Each structure stands twice: as structure tokens, then as C-alpha cells.
């Protein structure tokens, strides 16, 4: 049962849900939704079931009914681990928000951790750590004393950073991702942290990296300001964003990721005292066999480095 393979706790409801999935897979979303609604009569307190009902109704073009289902999912799980509020925003039944629910991001990556690298690198052609590694080395050849890897995940970026840094610290919202990263033995410190509320009060650092992270942040003003506060003068900040091509600052995409415009990135960096050292277009990954366009950025704090 999608999402998260969650059970309703009622065997008969689960069986109906499984049949609904089969109908959806065979191209009959309206019939699938009807069957899943019957399952929810047996298990009305099942947030994952209501969320999935909304997806089936959306596939059937029944957006009003989908909104009701996602509203019910949100009522049953106010932390919004499934991201129902994002679905409501995307169909225009909730105001646009500046950030996703933290519980949604944490749950997504806890669920994804075991197959993260196989899927992202092996199947989706993820190469952003390579882009940023080259961009950092071009901006400042040599070693860094202290680097922070924000949204470190399983350590894909950390593997590139380790040879060039004396001390490497990783921060991620997902405990499951951090466990995977820990097995690699490349970090001097790994800490669970919600980047939407990130702050750093340790010694000044000379490199901060956020590879393919801001797609789950939204508005960047606060976190870029926090990163500026953590960096020593002349320190580097390397990151990526998905490109927003339709104007505006940032927007929630149907993928439930955020895209940011180049103009917004430039504005946010300037407001926090950064100068852009490189800003290059890059294909971040593939999505449904289509390239996901983005930007790989390296900025220096204060004076040019």
C-alpha cells in the first residue's frame, strides 16, 4: 500500500486497498478510489489511506474529492508526515507556504534511506556532488580546516569533501540517513538537525555545502543568513537548487520539491553578504527520463577569495 507501505490495522481494509492499487495500476483510478473509500469505511482513522485516496481521486480528475481526502489525512495526522498540505497547495486548495512540513521531509528520507544511493545515483543519474566538488576546487584549491555538510544524507557529498577537509561535520533531519552515513566513517561529527531551523554556534567554519538540499527548504533567506553567520570571512558556501524558469522567487513543483530562480538566489546571497564566485547550469538528476535542470553555486562570504 502506498504511501510508506502503511497498514490500516484492519485485514479486510488492507485487502480492499490492495485491490484498489491493482485497479489504479490497470488505469482505472475512479474505480480504485471507490474501492479504497470502501476500505476507509472499515478503517476511518487511517491517514495513509486517506492520503492515497486523494492521489487516486486526483488521477481520476476529481480534485474536489481529492482535497477532501487530503484534508482528512491532515486532520488525522497534523504533523503531516505524508505531505497532504503540499498536495492541497498544488491543487489550489491551500495557500502557498514558504517551506514544507518538517515531519514530511523527515519521514520521506527515513523511508528512503535503505535504497537512497541505488535509486538516486544508479537509476536517476545524480551527479551534483561531482559538480560541486569541481566548483569548490576551482574556487579555492587546497584544504579546508572545518566544513559543514548540510543535508548530508548518506554521505555522497561527504565522500568528495573528506579528502580536502581536516574536520567534516554532517547535519541531516533523517536519523535513518545519518545511520547510513555513519557506516562510511568519513564524518568527524554527525548530528540530527532540521535545516529550516538550523543554527551553528561552534567555531567559525571555512566551507559549508548543501548539495540538492534546498529543494526541501523553500524560502532560503533564513538558512542562508544562518550559514553566513557560521562562516569565517572569506569562507565558501557551495550549494545547488532546481531552476525555476517561470519567474518569481521560488515555487512548489508537482514533485513536491521547491525550485528557485537565479534572480532569487543572487538576491538572497547578496543580502547575507556573499559574492558569487561561480554559478553554473547543471543537470541534477533524471526524473521520468527527463533532465532536472539546476544551478551549482559557489559563493564567498565578504571579500572575494
The tally of structural domains comes to 2
CATH class (first level) name of the largest domain: Alpha Beta
Could you say which overall geometry the principal axes of the C-alpha atoms support?
elongated
The amount of beta strand, in percent, is 15-25%
Query: How many strands, what sense, and barrel or not for the largest sheet?
Result: 9 strands, mixed
Explain this structure to me?
The chain is an alpha/beta fold. It has 2 domains: 11-95, Tetratricopeptide repeat domain (Serine Threonine Protein Phosphatase 5, Tetratricopeptide repeat); 114-301, 3-Layer(aba) Sandwich (Rossmann fold). The chain contains 12 helices and 9 strands. It has helices spanning 11-25, 29-42, 47-59, 63-76, 84-90, 102-112, 116-123, 128-139, 156-161, 175-182, 221-230, 262-271; strands spanning 144-150, 165-172, 189-192, 205-210, 231-243, 250-252, 258-260, 274-287, 290-301. Strands 1, 2, 3, 4, 5, 6, 7, 8 and 9 form a 9-stranded mixed sheet that branches.
Please describe the topology of this protein.
Layout: H1 11-25, H2 29-42, H3 47-59, H4 63-76, H5 84-90, H6 102-112, H7 116-123, H8 128-139, E1 144-150, H9 156-161, E2 165-172, H10 175-182, E3 189-192, E4 205-210, H11 221-230, E5 231-243, E6 250-252, E7 258-260, H12 262-271, E8 274-287, E9 290-301
Parallel strand pairs: 1-2, 1-4, 2-3, 4-5, 5-7
Antiparallel strand pairs: 5-9, 6-7, 8-9
Helix pairs in contact: 1-2, 2-3, 3-4, 4-5
Amino acid at each position: 500500500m502506498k504511501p510508506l507501505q502503511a497498514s490500516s490495522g484492519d485485514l479486510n481494509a488492507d485487502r480492499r486497498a490492495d485491490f484498489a492499487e491493482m485497479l489504479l495500476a490497470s488505469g482505472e483510478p475512479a474505480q480504485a478510489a471507490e474501492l479504497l473509500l470502501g476500505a476507509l469505511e472499515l478503517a476511518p482513522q487511517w491517514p495513509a489511506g486517506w492520503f492515497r485516496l486523494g492521489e487516486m481521486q486526483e488521477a481520476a480528475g476529481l480534485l474536489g474529492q481529492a482535497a477532501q481526502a487530503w484534508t482528512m489525512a491532515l486532520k488525522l495526522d497534523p504533523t503531516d508526515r505524508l505531505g497532504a498540505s503540499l498536495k492541497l497547495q498544488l491543487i489550489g486548495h491551500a495557500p502557498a507556504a514558504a517551506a514544507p512540513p518538517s515531519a514530511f521531509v523527515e519521514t520521506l528520507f527515513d523511508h528512503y534511506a535503505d535504497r537512497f544511493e541505488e535509486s538516486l545515483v544508479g537509476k536517476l543519474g545524480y551527479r551534483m556532488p561531482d559538480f560541486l566538488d569541481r566548483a569548490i576546487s576551482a574556487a579555492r584549491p587546497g584544504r579546508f580546516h572545518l566544513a559543514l555538510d548540510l543535508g548530508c544524507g548518506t554521505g555522497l557529498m561527504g565522500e568528495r569533501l573528506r579528502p580536502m577537509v581536516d574536520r567534516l561535520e554532517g547535519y541531516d533531519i533523517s536519523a535513518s540517513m545519518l545511520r547510513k552515513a555513519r557506516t562510511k566513517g568519513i564524518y568527524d561529527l554527525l548530528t540530527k538537525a532540521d535545516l529550516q531551523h538550523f543554527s551553528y554556534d561552534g567555531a567559525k567554519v571555512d566551507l559549508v555545502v548543501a548539495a540538492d538540499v534546498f529543494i526541501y527548504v523553500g524560502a532560503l533567506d533564513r538558512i542562508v543568513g544562518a550559514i553566513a553567520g557560521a562562516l569565517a570571512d572569506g569562507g565558501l558556501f557551495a550549494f545547488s537548487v532546481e531552476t525555476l524558469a517561470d519567474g518569481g522567487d521560488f515555487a512548489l513543483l508537482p514533485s513536491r520539491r521547491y525550485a528557485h530562480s537565479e534572480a532569487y538566489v543572487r538576491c538572497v546571497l547578496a543580502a547575507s553578504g556573499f559574492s558569487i564566485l561561480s554559478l553554473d547550469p547543471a543537470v541534477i538528476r533524471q526524473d521520468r527520463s527527463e533532465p532536472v535542470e539546476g544551478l551549482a553555486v559557489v559563493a564567498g562570504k565578504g571579500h572575494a577569495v
